[in-house]
Amino acid sequence: DAKTTQPNSMESNEEEPVHLPCNHSTISGTDYIHWYRQLPSQGPEYVIHGLTSNVNNRMASLAIAEDRKSSTLILHRATLRDAAVYYCIPYGGSQGNLIFGKGTKLSVKP
Amino acid sequence: NAGVTQTPKFRILKIGQSMTLQCTQDMNHNYMYWYRQDPGMGLKLIYYSVGAGITDKGEVPNGYNVSRSTTEDFPLRLELAAPSQTSVYFCASSYSRGWYFGPGTRLTVT
User: Fold this and answer.
1) How confident is the model over A48-82, as pLDDT tens digits?
2) 3-state secondary structure A22-76
3) Which of B96, B101, B106 is the mutation pick for testing A, counting most A CBs within 10 A?
4) What is the tens place of the pLDDT at every residue in B8-46?
5) Could you say which DSSP state residue A5 is in?
6) B97 pLDDT higher than 70
7) Contact B97 A32 (CB under 8 A)
8) Residue B109: which of B77, B80, B68 has the closest Cα?
9) How far is residue B35's CA from residue B92's CA, in Å, rounded to a whole number?
10) Which residues in chain B touch residue A100, judged by CB atoms under 8 angstroms apart?
11) Which positions in chain B touch A42 (Cβ < 8 Å)?
């Protein structure tokens, strides 16, 4: 399983963009990069995932480095509701397990 | 769809008592999982199931048992509760690359 490194915490101001980095230098060639987030007192929820090229959805954008050893989750305009722990998870889709690290705790200031 | 539901939301057990945490999903997913999350930590896999009648151990199975008699239900049984089992328990189901988590059960063993 690929090991990931994320900052323990980050702060942002409301309505400003946020870039959450993740290093996954041992990722295998077939692993997708998944991002989940966990709002306070809730279960994790899916944010976005990608393999090689950048991805966008209504929640966020995912920028993947060309060598796939790192990625960045981009929240274009942070809201107070985006305050959560964000997990970066390389996942091969074999349905075996999502391995959660400690993630990055994002605080959003009004 | 209700998604993944868990009951109860909270429970306090005395040492040595037993209980069953209930988990139900209405998305017809074959794969289901039980995780536990200790304060400030990521989620750790307890057990998982790839379909009715099939279960397997995860990273931290000791002290727990599971069964999967239907696609919808995946109960987690705690026998002889111990203080080390104080945690928040999350059930999840998945299909392809989409994972869905329940709201969690907060368990305290005293």
Assistant:
1) 999 998 999 988 999 999 999 999 999 999 999 99
2) EECCCCCCCCEEEEEEECCCCCCEEEEEECCCCEECCCCEEEECCCCCEEEEEEC
3) B101
4) 999 999 999 999 999 999 999 999 999 999 988 889 999
5) B
6) no
7) yes
8) B80
9) 8
10) 35, 42-44
11) 103-104
Chain B hits for A95, Cβ within 8 Å: 31, 50, 94
Residue indicated by tokens 């002889």: B80
Read off the pLDDT of residues B40-58 as tens digits, 9 standing for 90 and up.
Answer: 888 999 999 999 999 999 9
Contact A96 B48 (CB under 8 A): yes
